[in-house]
Amino acid sequence: MRWTRAASFEGFVVETLLEIHGLKTWFKTDDGMVRAVDGVDLRIDHGETVGVVGESGCGKTVTARSVLKLIDMPPGRFEDGKILWRGRDLIPLDDEEMNRIRAREIAIIFQEPMTSLNPVYTVGDQIAEVIALHQKLGRKQAMEGAAEMLRLVNIPNPQRRVHDYPHQFSGGMRQRVMIAMALSCQPKLLIADEPTTALDVTIQAQILELMHEMKDRFGMAIMLITHAMGVVAETCQRVTVMYAGKVVEEAPVGELFGQPRHPYTQGLIRSIPRVDRAAEKKQRLEAISGTVPSLLDPPPGCRFAARCRYASDICVREMPPLKEVSPGHFVRCVL
Prior knowledge:
The protein has helices at about 60-65, 95-100, 115, 125-135, 140-150, 160, 170-180, 200-220, 230-235, 255-260, 265-270, 275-280, 315; strands spanning about 5-10, 10-30, 30-45, 50-55, 75-85, 90, 105-110, 190-195, 220-225, 240-245, 245-250, 325, 330. The chain is of the alpha/beta class.
């Protein structure tokens, strides 16, 4: 076990909220078993923002949904591992026990709010339902709470807009509604699953700033799932890089961008447009050649070996362990 449940930092004890150890979430299909998440370790401490990055299909969203047990079973199943929430393993809990944790202690924002909000109910009714369920309040008090949450996320005229339906809001405003709903019970951890992907750049910045404000207001931690490395650089304290169902690198954000160790992380960073260098010299963005291996039958060695410019024979034969190469910096690579 790599971590203790409380970490010491400059004399202060920091509570570890979430610890994932060796998590394997697999899916049974007609073609075989898909190893979507295949031995993931992850830690989130109180008050920090942890970025989980990687290209589509690497297991980011399945990891997030596994935390709240939002995986359809079957076809999904937990093959192995533990999900410790403040020291308590969530995997053995039944639906009733999980419902007491969802929203109240751990909340989630999904990528596309229009598919997450019910189109036939007002946004006020949907937020009030969460408040009434977890805080045991009457309808009037719950609706007042819903209006207050809309005010906190900077939606104008919240007393009137609680009676509007999702289609009456813009994309950015719908995402604010989702944030209001997620934070209505003041959770300790907010999981944000690519919350800005469907928004334009200006609205993305507003939503990220809002999440930062809400984090400070409620004293919560954030697990930010994204493929945008620039967003991670601006908002996160630590970064976990995933590839083909496994963690390949984890480090404090400054060290990850300043000294990336895994070839996949290096490729992700090289693919970021550099505005500061554009005026000096035009450069073509680098792409990572090849494709992600099939998770139905993953290769025995490093899963990035077929796309790696540094790969050797041992990379193809053996899966490298996740090793600590400097304090807090872990890499899954023989180099």
